[in-house]
């Protein structure tokens, strides 16, 4: 059995593998193991399993080897390549799909995780893997040399101090995502959030982040989320003629939804383990207004200049 050091190394490697997969979660294309339909995006495939098949998989945050996890499930569904379907929870031979679905519903075997299917554990992070050390070993480590313990803490902090976040408008992962959005897309997210009259707290910002990610994945304008804007058709025509990115550059105010929903549905992360939410939104204090130094007045941001240009074009067009 490995010691605490090897357990920590394994845990860190597993978390890094999960994070790397989540960073491409919106573009990851996965085949359904039941119907073979290919679905784009980790969250979308989870919704496909629940909506199309009534199956609820474990959260992808706990899966280290996703390919192995899905391959193992398919092997349990179709034992030895047999066309007859089996229940992966109780191993019953159900035969055709209709009987299999009836069995899943009647027996309540629709939850597939390490608790209901223990053989999935090698592909996941489970608490049991990292709680097997005896109490004496833990006490010895707790009372060990302070200098060595501090050195170990420094190593962990050095490795995890900065977590790259995936841009809201492209797939670039950056340690300074807000600056990247200004430089690459002309979007000052902090200024946009602070100037939006519908933003009241950090939960509204989380909703906005998830809405933008959904709209970018679908190629739709965030400003018209849920079709609540009267100029939705104008935006669609603009994007057909160019692109979503070009449309947002021309209309900087459209990077945020016109109306911020108040329901909890938009609090569910679109990108599992979204570092933009955990570090930039929750830890970035986006709602705090920076005090302006009279000796060094703030220059207009790119987003502000673009917004003024857009407003000028709209005024000239209405004259």
UniProtKB/TrEMBL annotation:
Domain of life: Eukaryota
Disordered: annotated span: 134-156
ZN622/Rei1/Reh1 zinc finger C2H2-type domain location: 32-116
Gene Ontology molecular function terms on file: zinc ion binding
Database matches in Pfam families: zf-C2H2_2
Keyword annotations: Metal-binding, Zinc, Zinc-finger
Designated name of the protein: ZN622/Rei1/Reh1 zinc finger C2H2-type domain-containing protein
Species this chain originates from: Trypanosoma rangeli SC58
Lineage: Eukaryota, Discoba, Euglenozoa, Kinetoplastea, Metakinetoplastina
């Amino acid at each position: 059995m490995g010691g605490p050091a090897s357990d920590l190394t394994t845990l860190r490697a597993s978390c890094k593998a999960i994070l790397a997969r989540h960073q491409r979660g919106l573009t990851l294309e996965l085949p359904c193991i039941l119907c073979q339909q290919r679905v784009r995006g980790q969250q979308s495939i989870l919704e496909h399993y629940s909506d199309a098949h009534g199956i609820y998989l474990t959260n992808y945050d706990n899966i280290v080897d996703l390919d192995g996890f899905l391959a193992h499930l398919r092997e349990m569904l179709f034992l030895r390549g047999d066309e007859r379907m089996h229940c992966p929870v109780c191993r019953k031979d159900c035969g055709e799909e209709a009987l299999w679905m009836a069995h899943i519903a009647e027996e309540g075997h629709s939850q597939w995780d390490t608790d209901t299917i223990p053989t999935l554990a090698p592909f996941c992070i489970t608490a049991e893997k990292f709680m097997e050390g005896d109490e004496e070993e833990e006490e010895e480590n707790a009372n060990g040399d302070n200098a060595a313990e501090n050195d170990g803490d420094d190593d962990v902090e050095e490795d995890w101090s900065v977590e790259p976040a995936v841009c809201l408008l492209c797939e670039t992962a950056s340690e300074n995502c807000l600056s990247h959005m200004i430089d690459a897309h002309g979007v000052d997210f902090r200024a946009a959030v602070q100037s939006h009259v519908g933003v009241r707290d950090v939960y509204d910002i989380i909703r906005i982040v998830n809405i933008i990610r959904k709209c970018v994945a679908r190629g739709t304008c965030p400003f018209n989320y849920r079709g609540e804007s009267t100029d939705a058709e104008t935006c669609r025509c603009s994007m057909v003629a160019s692109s979503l990115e070009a449309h947002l550059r021309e209309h900087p105010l459209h990077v945020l939804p016109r109306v911020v929903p108040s329901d909890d549905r938009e609090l569910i992360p679109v990108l599992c383990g979204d570092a933009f939410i955990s570090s930039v939104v929750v830890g970035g204090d986006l709602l705090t207004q920076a005090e302006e130094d009279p000796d060094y007045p703030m220059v207009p941001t790119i987003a502000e200049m673009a917004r003024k240009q857009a407003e000028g074009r709209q005024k000239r067009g209405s004259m």
